[in-house]
Amino acid sequence: MAQPMVGGDGAHSYAKNSSGQGRVMERAKELINEAIADKLDLKLLKIDTSSTFRVADLGCSTGPNTFIVVQNIIEAIELKLLQADRQNPSTIEFQVFFNDHPENDFNTLFKALPHSRKYFAAGVPGFFQNRLFPKSTLHIINSSYALHWLSKIPKEIVGGNSLTWNRESIRNKRFVNEVAEAYSAQFKNDIESFLNARAQELVAGGLMFILIVAVPDGIPLSQTTLGVFYDVFGSCLMDMAKMGITSEEKINSFNIPNHRPTPKELESIIKTNKYFTIERMEQLANRMSQSTFLAKCRTSAVRAVYEGVVMEHFGSEFVEPFFNHFTVKVEENASRFEKFQNPIDLFVLLKRTGDELN
Amino acid sequence: MAQPMVGGDGAHSYAKNSSGQGRVMERAKELINEAIADKLDLKLLKIDTSSTFRVADLGCSTGPNTFIVVQNIIEAIELKLLQADRQNPSTIEFQVFFNDHPENDFNTLFKALPHSRKYFAAGVPGFFQNRLFPKSTLHIINSSYALHWLSKIPKEIVGGNSLTWNRESIRNKRFVNEVAEAYSAQFKNDIESFLNARAQELVAGGLMFILIVAVPDGIPLSQTTLGVFYDVFGSCLMDMAKMGITSEEKINSFNIPNHRPTPKELESIIKTNKYFTIERMEQLANRMSQSTFLAKCRTSAVRAVYEGVVMEHFGSEFVEPFFNHFTVKVEENASRFEKFQNPIDLFVLLKRTGDELN
């Protein structure tokens, strides 16, 4: 059942609750501006007035967020160039590469490109665990809310053994240690591949900005709102089986190729890569309060993200009843959502070292 | 009414008649290979082993022809690099930009990209009369069967005056001198813009390959098969008006933004641009005989090209009866098609001079 936005500026209002999200984006912008001002060394990058400055956004989707971030990056670089030499206005040209997997809707992305943009735009289809660009051709890479997507479901999960999980674990496989470890190992593999590919593509001194949703350190997944989300999602699937709309076998073979790391987990993976230094790692102000309203908000956001995978696995007739039921269930579990800690928005600034590639 | 392909290897067979088209593509490949072997100066291009070699295909559509041409270009360059230094195998990486207008179906293009390609691929949406790439970043540009598309209908044609054409000229406006001159002037403008944009993007010594369908020098349009095509097309439109399916006003406001130049016309436009030298200009073997079969073949090719513009102007219900009628009319006019000379496939090789940009 559709619920209208809560008006006014009370505790549950949209205006009040969306400001958290706005604060996250605002803080990410500040961190990017500071990074470009303080950590970007134009001489090290070998940028001169006739250069092309190349920026890539990995996991761009169809906009408009990617355009906002890219415009901010370019304005920060222009400001830096202006401050570096006020006498000789720079004639540097910008080229921006928008990357996402080959099934992304690039047609929509291209039609949405801002008309008055200050850069030459290109779309790059491909998986960012692989190489996407020629060596040493990028100066800045951004990736917002994309690195949690895995290249595949861990092989331990899709194997024949997976049917041996008991009923409770079908409802929420992510709480099973072996499953959590398999996802974590796949994430480690994928981030290592990602960093090695980017190390080839980024020039020495180049910067990479990563924004990712993480699980707070030291708190079991089951005691976070993300854990509650997984549990409610799984329990909804089980309800569908009870109603005869799907089967437990079908639910057991449903897996989503993503993983939310903890800050420590991500940090330790990055630190094994000698081509990058962590210049900054900051937990941004929480974008959500644990309010009931936000649980509701979350529902439509969840649908936006998961509708595709749910439809692919369970079929299109499944989608509507499932998400309707999910909305109801989230309401019922509001107090559980309010009890636990939210995931965090983690900003990581990496710098490409001068180390030559092997 | 659908007609099956004519089998066997008789005069009207597909096998016989398609060989002309194959010959054109084969010859274009030879000319590109020769150009890369003889006219590409790697030192002038400042290509060393750590460089990125950048190729752009302008007007790429959705493949697969663009992939075939690009692969051929890259293999020719690899051969040249190998011959230049057999001791030190090149580690040069290739980046290929596929360009077409923003309404092109890049999703289809991206999904069709060869999996085993030797290059990093990117799509670039935009009109090639404008800048598309940063300055001095491309080494080779290819454009096959695309440059006849104009940036717009000449303003003289869309003006209020256009209703003053008489009945015969509505049927075939292209035979009216003022109209032909307006299209020719628009083509000149567009090619000048195209060359000026490419002069900025191509490095000194960079090559550009152009393949374009041209009208033979010294023959009036009305006495070429292209003229017969225009006439039959216009007469079909008039028949539709007689049947009450459309109106003469609607036909009068129907214009297709393309122009087929003569070789001399194209040559003289290029020669006014100081940033390019014409290294070669060759009429390729005719891809079509004037046979009745080819007139039929042409019908489906015509539909592939013109269905979009016809649908946009006359509506979707118009398309099927129109092209059915067109097929019949082409048959009726077979002897006229056989009497006149076909348009020619023209290959032009341009080289970017060392002249600095103003």
TrEMBL record, chains A, B:
List the residue ranges of the region (Disordered): 1-21
One Gene Ontology term of the biological-process aspect is: methylation
* Alphabetized GO MF terms: metal ion binding; methyltransferase activity
User: What keywords tag this UniProt record?
Assistant: Magnesium, Metal-binding, Methyltransferase, Transferase
Supply the SUPFAM superfamilies for this chain. Answer: S-adenosyl-L-methionine-dependent methyltransferases
InterPro entries hit by this protein: MeTrfase_7 (IPR005299), MeTrfase_capping (IPR042086), SAM-dependent_MTases_sf (IPR029063)
Superkingdom in the source lineage: Eukaryota
**What name does UniProt use for this protein?**
Uncharacterized protein
Native source organism of the sequence: Citrus x changshan-huyou
